Amino acid sequence: MAWALTLPLEEHRSRILSPGRSLRPCVDDPVTFLRSCFQDGTAVGRAQLPGLGRAESSAAFCLHPLRVWDSATFWYLEGVMFKWMLAMVSSWGWIAGYTVTEWGDDVKAFSEEEAMVIVNHQSTGDVCTLMMCLQDKGTVVRKMMWLMDHVFKYTNFGLVSLIHGDFFIRQGKAYRDKQLVYLKEHLERFYHSRDRKWIVLFPEGGFLRKRRETSQLFAKKNALPHLTHVTLPRTGATQIILKTLGGAQENGSVSGSTGNNNQTGVSKTKGLQWVIDVTIAYPKARPMDIQTWIFGYRPPTVTHVHYRMYPIKEVPVEAEALTDWLYQRFVEKEQLLEHFYSTGLFPPSAGLPQASPRHMSLDPVWLCAVQSLAFASGYMWFSALQYLYCCVF
Prior knowledge:
- This protein is α/β, with parallel strands linked by helices.
- The protein has one domain (6-389).
- Helix content is 50%, strand content 12%.
- The protein has helices at residues 2-16, 30-40, 42-46, 49-62, 64-69, 71-96, 125-133, 156-164, 173-190, 208-221, 236-245, 290-295, 319-343, 364-392, and strands at residues 99-104, 115-119, 144-149, 167-169, 198-201, 249-250, 253-254, 274-281, 302-311, 358-360.
- The strands form two sheets. It has an eight-stranded mixed beta sheet with strand order 4-3-5-2-8-9-1-10, with helices on both faces.
- β6 and β7 (253-254) form a beta hairpin.
- α4 runs antiparallel to α6 (71-96), α4 (49-62) runs parallel beside α8 (156-164) and α4 (49-62) crosses α14 (364-392).
- The longest helix is centred in the last third of the chain and has 29 residues, at 364-392.
- It holds the Pfam family Acyltransferase.
- InterPro entries: Acyltransf_C, Plipid/glycerol_acylTrfase.
């Protein structure tokens, strides 16, 4: 029976898979078998992302009357569809054997509390890695807001992100001041009104390979630490987020006390409660870009993600103090990454004798359901366009 199931896939596999991957003639492990089945259809499955994105944007448009009558239900449904699409991206890496091991604080228990997430930025694969490792963190994926480069606005994912309320930021000195004003207005209008919990940003403001030399020259000129695995962060967006979402301030820090967003008419919220410091490490310091994530060029790889949480009361808001605080966080990231690249492990948290990694996994049945939805949405759009073509011509 096993050979009856796998033989047709083996013939197809010889044409589309890279050397070194083989189909095992057994189904004793359903996860392995599902992964093998997905791999043979991976190119087609990944092609469904535009269809799934169109499906979400179209569904959101069709549900627009609901947004007027019951905005909470509308944004709940939109968040569910948004999570489905991010699960599609996660499935690409899972299919290719790209997995995540987590270290440090366990952030799952805080998924319902508001937090700002700061991440080191090495490549486009960082976003895909985050999409995967946050899939099992409760409602985080559907209730998070991303800050991303404006070029993503012009991708098939851009329309979905616009509907979701993500913020597209333009880089460069010519745009910096205006972008911070736009960011503040965006947060005031959309963050609490759409029940967002986590906001994700990359304070370095660009990829490591592009900013490292400039950052090191700036550090040398200003007697700052010399960093190799990260770059010195920029504080503008971080300060705007803390001041806008952090509630009242006490002694130069965010108090985390109850606040109210009067402009949107939203009920009282506690504001930001945590800053989650996320450090992504790739084996042998070789970042994975989104092209590798999509097409699976690289052999199966484990990406390591380290979390450290800081209560919002410990985070200063004033520019000079916040700059020093952020610089210290990235010096710590440098030390974490140096230790990882030397030993293959992250160091234990303070007070613990040794670090305890947590191997993150995805539910193959869930991924199968999402892939099926993607195929169905793609077929729906193909049929609609085909019918329209026949009517016109």
